[in-house]
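for ur thesis appendix - glucarate dehydratase. copy paste whatever u need, i formatted it the way the template wanted (i think)
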Amino acid sequence: MSTTGTKIRELIVTPIAFRDPPLLNSNGVHEPLALRCVLQLRLEDGTVGLGESPGGAVRLERLDAAAKAVVGLDVFDTTAVTAAVDAVLLPTVPSSHERGWTTSAVEVACLDAQGKLLGRPVSDLLGGRVRDSVPFAGYLFYKWGEHPALDGREAVGDDWGEALDPAGIVAQARLMRERYGFRSFKLKGGVFPPDEEIAAIRALSEAFPGQPLRLDPNTAWTVETSRYVARELDGFLEYLEDPTATIAGMAEVAKDSPLPLATNMCVIAWEHLRPAVEQNAVQVLLTDHHYWGGLRRTRELAAVCEAFGIALSMHSNSHLGISLAAMTHVAAAIPHLDHSCDTHYPWNLADDIVRPGVFELRDGEVKVPTGPGLGVELDHEALDRLHRVYLESGMRGRDDTGYMRRVEPDYELRLPRW
Ligand code: GKR
Ligand code: MG
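the 3d part is after this line
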């Protein structure tokens, strides 16, 4: 194929804001809006590749810098594209993890464009799919029934209702099952004292016998508390996720934990793998192509994990359909994906920016799109609308703690809390 048409003409980055319910976590509560950036990578022949990245002013600024660095490069030379973006960020962004958020989004857009040029799905560019559909877990959150009235804004409810105790969590899981057919569940913990969250997991286990369950308090616990919870939940969880902070802390817990420990917090860059393996800190890694360097690097990461006997799962943040497409393609191409993937999609899909019809979460799974590239089409009207929401909101970063304090002024962020 000649390279005349495959050069990158421009990268358009559009910041958007979309609705998010009041989901609670160890840092506070989700704000009424979540931020993402949508990437449109236009080639000289007019082909457009799509990408999606977490939003906010800092990430937007980096993506804008990346947009300038990639013009004129060949879309098939993702090594050069990544190197160009990395080089432009390096002087101001020393963390490889942080640079990864930008390089990953650009790589996904390149792969989408490549797939469109070749008429092949992205999973083929990753070596081919080993499964036709990808299992996802129902991601359960403690939550308020509505975003309270604040700053002259009226209260905003949703059709999930309140979930602040074990019965509420079981009811939410039933709704998730009814709407999307999930066959495994993850509970976001770190919100209530550990015994209450242990009770919620036991209630889920009783309501859904035999279904894989996991609990993730996002480092809300000390090593001692983590050990206690691991003992209490032995036999109830497939893994315990980020009970405590740091590789060393997780390694302490792992020493006598009857449960495998998982992370998407202490092993988030290539340089973390060696100490994590040496200390046997984690037995399950939640990959996330959004910061591990893209879809191809995620496949490489999977091979490294396989070599060291670390099982694989997948992390997610609030996201929309381009990200779901990318997650689905890479999960389809990873031979040993040991657990269902996380996704926030049910919480956010009402504001999607891809045209409906391609994706359906059914029986807890998403069919791998077989059309060219990621297999999704941008809904330009939705994109324009959500861009206006972003501009009007004035919101430029995620602040779960600040929002919580505006609603409950005495709230203090403490990690570990218990
Ligand atoms: O959305 O509140 C949340 C989650 O806590 C998210 O921010 C985490 O990144 O889902 C994530 C996790 O598994 O840690
Ligand atoms: Mg997690």
